[in-house]
What we know:
Elements: H1 2-29, E1 34-37, E2 41-44, E3 47-50, E4 53-57, E5 60-61, E6 69-71, E7 74-76, H2 78-90, E8 96-102, E9 108-114, E10 117-118, H3 119-125, E11 130-131, H4 136-145, H5 157-168, H6 170-181
Helix pairs in contact: 3-4
Amino acid sequence: MARGFRTIRDGVTAFAMLALIWLIAAKLNDAPDTVHAGQFHTADGDSLTLGAERMRLRGIDAPELNQSCERGGTRWACGWEARATLQRLVAGSDTRCGGSERDQYDRLLVVCRSGGIDLNAEMVARGMAVSYGNYEREEERARVEKAGLWAGTFERPRDVRDHERERSGFEDVRRLIGQVTGWE
């Protein structure tokens, strides 16, 4: 009987230790948000700069700057329009953008707010960006209302980037390097 008790005690102790390690790891990963305020400049419909800090709006994907879309049989510069829309939204003196993670290009992933409004959500609701996992409700509303991009046809920004990469030959070079180095 003592042996069975020791086995249970050891199992409970091991579980408690694993739970403690998990809690410590979670706390270490809980970095505080870096918050920026000031005169933001838009690089495109989902990227901002403030001084030397480059930021990417989390959870959305806006048309590429040089991307065009179709609406009513006419092409329009949806990439430039998305950029202009974001610039107007971040122009408020109370705009704050905060985040704690960085993307593969070392841009701070942020959610921006102004006047109590989530500007990332607003870009999607206006049809100037698509949801990238966080703003499905806003995207559905934009689709129903045929706002912005949804008023016609467009290619998803990720697909535009993929096509540009393919046309540039980058994928061929990446594939060759992968074959030579074995990093495929």
